[in-house]
């Protein structure tokens, strides 16, 4: 039906001719002949004001659309899992030969982590006073982190970076940093670093002294050489993405006692960061793990095994953080809606102001003063504000 | 026409008919905008009719609940006679050799295709071999063990089964029953050896406390000795079968609570994505194979309570009910259409009981612990968080009407602006043309 009319239009020589065609009978927007249209200064001002308002609205909407929105969803992890990677980089103030690194997990396995991780002798002083090293739960200046003040820079208030930053960081090549060279002297500390595959079950990763804890290996070590002061530069689960900060990264914990037990209790939450709707093509994702940690450390007596213990457990619920932007078409519709709304509102505003001026003017005219005549235009300008 | 004060406020001013022009371009714009309005309104209507499933995460506040485990697992190389299902949990509750609600189906040996053996023919056989024709004064000896509490004749062991129960209660190994007259009479050893090459499918449901626990399928009678859980493995080891038995298994089905209906699953979205809330049992149709009789499989299951509330369930809500007497399989399905079930995430682990490292899988650093019971173990843990999948309309009726107004108003306003631009542009063009001429 409609096509028929369109064809008719196509044959029409002059589309703007004010003829009484069939199509033109449909015109729901009758225009007034120019000679009947009056342009007023008040109307002009309203038009300008409206354009300014529309521009502001348009700009803010554009900015919001460009920034996109973050949605946090969750799901129970699918599939049968087997392994979980752990990445760590830790400096302990003891000689490498005196340390044992092992994992014991709920599946009954003992993982000889030491064989998979690299050991480098190093100097304690090079690590403990390095920049960015702080105690867990405190910032670099030693103040307690309360979690307040996130709202200033972070929209979501979760204390997280934006997803697009995380995703782009996640694509960077991962490599372990070099241990600073030892000049002459024998190092007093040991840097243990590398990645290791664990069973994806509850477990305990621990660094203990030779001859303490496990019966079979190593001879007994002199108690005076125990010092489990340590600096954790990296501790993360999943693929090694050094640029993502984890709660334990860059933390130091020192002790003067020989028998000291440091325990970290960690809950690992699988997390997927994605850019763009994951059901669409072209979205990028980073699959990683976050964790929550509590530290418990105390001096122990000589019957207890001293060391550094990381106890981890895996949460069944996976967190999915998506940063997405509306499709362009939806954005256009939104813009059109806003602009037309502003247009209509402006039109009404103009009429209202016009009416007010008129009513006030009439009252004044009927009152005492004749000197205020011609104030209607000024009144119009006043209502612009 | 009476001119009131409001006349000036008229937002819908009408132009006098004489001063109006109707143009072809205006007509086209009108038609196009009408099409757009129809199109968008249709979309809005669809949006209004759409039912969305909103997942919510809450802390599970239910208490004292029990949970159902539904399983269907095939063991092609362990006969039914040897297979035992035990459940234990941290509350101290133990269910040994679960029979109620669980059906064992004998499977043909793998060399014969492995199909199920018709159970009717089996029961026929069993009927003429039972010891019904015994002397009424007969009281079978229990061979030093205390008679079982549930014996048919108090103080006696009338059947081979009762002797075995008595032995199990005394925590003694039983073996094939050599020298036990009840068992010889019933040909227990022969029957056992007859079954040796068969497999077994175990299916059914059991009800457990909703606390941390484990259930396992292992060979032989099980009993608790102090706080040790022991299986009588004698018959498993002493087997005439070439290569021995092994815990090769296929999990056809494992779920905790009722299965969501298929149509509900569809609404929950694409199941191929790892992050949808599509209800899926990750262990369904998984298969593990080994030739080593000394092999142990462990599944670490984390259970997340999940409920599904369909649209309008509140109206039909009839209060919480907890019927412990209900048949297995009846749990979790409300008369209001709501479903209380559980999802789970799982990690699998396998090891040889001989210990050793995991160099076969490329992990020389991984040392397995030694000892234990061959079998398939499921240890489950309950998450404190609960997922609620709630069906909701995407929009309320008022929202729909508002959306409709926005569409009509917006489109018409924009169309008016376009039309006006075309009209004025046309006039300018005409003026230019007339100047040129």
TrEMBL record, chain A:
<dbReference type="InterPro" id="IPR039542">
    <property type="entry name" value="Erv_N"/>
</dbReference>
<keyword id="KW-0256">Endoplasmic reticulum</keyword>
<dbReference type="GO" id="GO:0006888">
    <property type="term" value="P:endoplasmic reticulum to Golgi vesicle-mediated transport"/>
</dbReference>
<keyword id="KW-0931">ER-Golgi transport</keyword>
<comment type="function">
    <text>Plays a role in transport between endoplasmic reticulum and Golgi.</text>
</comment>
<keyword id="KW-0472">Membrane</keyword>
<protein>
    <recommendedName>
        <fullName>Endoplasmic reticulum-Golgi intermediate compartment protein</fullName>
    </recommendedName>
</protein>
<feature type="domain" description="Endoplasmic reticulum vesicle transporter C-terminal">
    <location>
        <begin position="186"/>
        <end position="345"/>
    </location>
</feature>
<dbReference type="GO" id="GO:0005789">
    <property type="term" value="C:endoplasmic reticulum membrane"/>
</dbReference>
<dbReference type="Pfam" id="PF07970">
    <property type="entry name" value="COPIIcoated_ERV"/>
</dbReference>
<dbReference type="GO" id="GO:0006890">
    <property type="term" value="P:retrograde vesicle-mediated transport, Golgi to endoplasmic reticulum"/>
</dbReference>
<dbReference type="Pfam" id="PF13850">
    <property type="entry name" value="ERGIC_N"/>
</dbReference>
<keyword id="KW-0333">Golgi apparatus</keyword>
<keyword id="KW-0813">Transport</keyword>
<keyword id="KW-0812">Transmembrane</keyword>
<dbReference type="GO" id="GO:0033116">
    <property type="term" value="C:endoplasmic reticulum-Golgi intermediate compartment membrane"/>
</dbReference>
<feature type="domain" description="Endoplasmic reticulum vesicle transporter N-terminal">
    <location>
        <begin position="24"/>
        <end position="111"/>
    </location>
</feature>
<dbReference type="GO" id="GO:0000139">
    <property type="term" value="C:Golgi membrane"/>
</dbReference>
<dbReference type="InterPro" id="IPR045888">
    <property type="entry name" value="Erv"/>
</dbReference>
<dbReference type="GO" id="GO:0030134">
    <property type="term" value="C:COPII-coated ER to Golgi transport vesicle"/>
</dbReference>
<keyword id="KW-1133">Transmembrane helix</keyword>
<comment type="similarity">
    <text>Belongs to the ERGIC family.</text>
</comment>
UniProtKB/TrEMBL annotation, chain B:
<dbReference type="InterPro" id="IPR039542">
    <property type="entry name" value="Erv_N"/>
</dbReference>
<feature type="region of interest" description="Disordered">
    <location>
        <begin position="94"/>
        <end position="118"/>
    </location>
</feature>
<protein>
    <recommendedName>
        <fullName>Endoplasmic reticulum-Golgi intermediate compartment protein</fullName>
    </recommendedName>
</protein>
<keyword id="KW-0931">ER-Golgi transport</keyword>
<keyword id="KW-0472">Membrane</keyword>
<dbReference type="GO" id="GO:0033116">
    <property type="term" value="C:endoplasmic reticulum-Golgi intermediate compartment membrane"/>
</dbReference>
<dbReference type="GO" id="GO:0005789">
    <property type="term" value="C:endoplasmic reticulum membrane"/>
</dbReference>
<dbReference type="GO" id="GO:0000139">
    <property type="term" value="C:Golgi membrane"/>
</dbReference>
<comment type="function">
    <text>Plays a role in transport between endoplasmic reticulum and Golgi.</text>
</comment>
<dbReference type="Pfam" id="PF13850">
    <property type="entry name" value="ERGIC_N"/>
</dbReference>
<feature type="transmembrane region" description="Helical">
    <location>
        <begin position="397"/>
        <end position="418"/>
    </location>
</feature>
<feature type="transmembrane region" description="Helical">
    <location>
        <begin position="21"/>
        <end position="42"/>
    </location>
</feature>
<dbReference type="GO" id="GO:0006890">
    <property type="term" value="P:retrograde vesicle-mediated transport, Golgi to endoplasmic reticulum"/>
</dbReference>
<dbReference type="Pfam" id="PF07970">
    <property type="entry name" value="COPIIcoated_ERV"/>
</dbReference>
<dbReference type="GO" id="GO:0030134">
    <property type="term" value="C:COPII-coated ER to Golgi transport vesicle"/>
</dbReference>
<keyword id="KW-1133">Transmembrane helix</keyword>
<comment type="similarity">
    <text>Belongs to the ERGIC family.</text>
</comment>
<dbReference type="InterPro" id="IPR045888">
    <property type="entry name" value="Erv"/>
</dbReference>
<keyword id="KW-0813">Transport</keyword>
<dbReference type="GO" id="GO:0006888">
    <property type="term" value="P:endoplasmic reticulum to Golgi vesicle-mediated transport"/>
</dbReference>
<feature type="domain" description="Endoplasmic reticulum vesicle transporter N-terminal">
    <location>
        <begin position="7"/>
        <end position="95"/>
    </location>
</feature>
<keyword id="KW-0256">Endoplasmic reticulum</keyword>
